[in-house]
Description:
CATH architecture of the domain at 92-255: Orthogonal Bundle
Structural class: mainly alpha
CATH superfamily of the domain at 92-255: MetI-like
Helix content: 55-70%
Radius of gyration: 26 Å
Number of helices: 14
Order of helices and strands: HHHHHHHHHHHHHH
Amino acid sequence: MTATTTIVPKATAATRKRRNWGRVGLHVFLATMAVIWLMPIAWAVYTAFRTFGDTTLNGYFSLPSSLTLQNFFDAWTQGELLRNYIQTLAIVVPGVAITLLVASMVAFGVVKFSWRFNIVVLMLFVAGNLLPQQAIIVPLYHLYLALPVPAPLSDNGGLYDQIFGLLLIHVVFQTGFCVFVLSNYMKTLSKELTEAGQVDGASIFRIWWSIILPLCRPALAALATLEFTFIYNDFFWGLLLIKSGDRRPITSALNNLQGQFFTNYNLLAACSVLVAIPTIVVYILLQKQFIRGLTLGSTKG
Length: 301
């Protein structure tokens, strides 16, 4: 008997050439997008190191005659960044914690248990993300002014110009997104875990706290990174709902550096660079958990 051999056709030279050109085109596209994305950041850093006089005389699109760190020192003192950092963290840290706790409770209730309105509740939370916040600003602003608040949480009897009110706004608007993400993630967890906890006599709260939350740690870490960035970088609500300059979060407090007749954009750029540092640090510290949370739960089965 003669052995037969199967000949596997190799890719032709034209096919390999097409693949190489496609890879080159992809790399060129990614490099171009990276440069476009990094240009504003690089320009802000470049402007922050220039002096105001040099920029005024030679223009913004010119080579610097000298570089200095003085803008950063002036931004730290004139912008009162230390106080604004503390005030912003007083909003961001409890805001992220409360949002994730409430969202995990809602997601656990609508995914792991079957009741009459679980789909309706989930749809309501998800639908809240589809409506732009600016579209409901007028009725929300009037409601914001009308709601009474007890003295320990407000010094004027209301939510306006109060850090607690700004914290409440962020929790309300960010919970829907977190419910959507956590509900999809919890669907990948086996229902036998919840049933085993019930058989062992564990309460609903115990199952949520001791079984579900530890398993959702990657998703919670990814959401914590995103929510920290969302709340920390908010400019709209801080500028609209806080009138006192010394109470605004750090991004909205940048508006305090703008004068009525002229603005020192070198100083403003230096302050913007300092303001962006905490979000970069948080992302670097939680980078592994963030990527893991994005990949886990992407497939089921």
